[in-house]
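Notebook entry, structure prediction.
Reason for the run: the old model in the group folder had no record of what sequence produced it. Starting over properly, with the input documented here first.
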Amino acid sequence: MKKLIYIIMLLIFSYFSKFQVEEKKSSKKNIEHSKKSEIPKEVRGKVLYIPDGDTIHITMNGEKFKIRFYGIDCPEISQPYGLEAKEFLMRHIDKNDVKVEVVEKDRYGRLVGKVYSRGVYLNELMVEEGYAWWYKNYAKKEKKMEILQIRAEKEKKGLWSQENPQAPWEYRKKK
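New structure, fully documented this time:
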C-alpha cells in the first residue's frame, strides 16, 4: 500500500512539474520575443567586432547588438577601399565604448543608428574622409552628409581618389 501511495505521489508531482517547466519555457520565449521586437532609443556598449566600415557588433549589459551605420554605405571588403574603410573605423573606435542613437531596425534585425565614439559622430566622419557614400535613398534629410560627400569628392579623399569609384549598392547588384 505504501508503494502505491508513493507511486501515485510521484506521478502527481511529475505531472505538475511538467507544467511548471513548460510555463517557464513559454515565459522565457515571450521575454526573448519582446526583446527582439522592442527597439531601444539608445544603446551604449563595448565594440566586440567590426566586420566592415559601416557595421559593428557591440555588447551592452550582456546583450549583443549588430549595428548598421545610418545614412552611409561603405565599400564592400572585396571592393577598393573596403578594407581601408574598416581599418579607418577601427582606428577611430580603438576599444572605446560607443553610443548609438537608434533610428530603426532593418530587415536583417540589425539596429540602424548614429554612432558616436568619444563624442565624434562616426557616420559623418566616414563620409567626410572619403570612406563611405552618403546613402541618399535611406537618409534623404541628412543634408550635411551630402555636403561632406561633395567636399570629399572635390578633395579626392579616400575612395574619391579613384577615377570612377563604384557605389557599394551597384557592386552588390552585380554579385
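Summary: The longest helix spans residues 2-37.
The old model has been moved to the deprecated folder.
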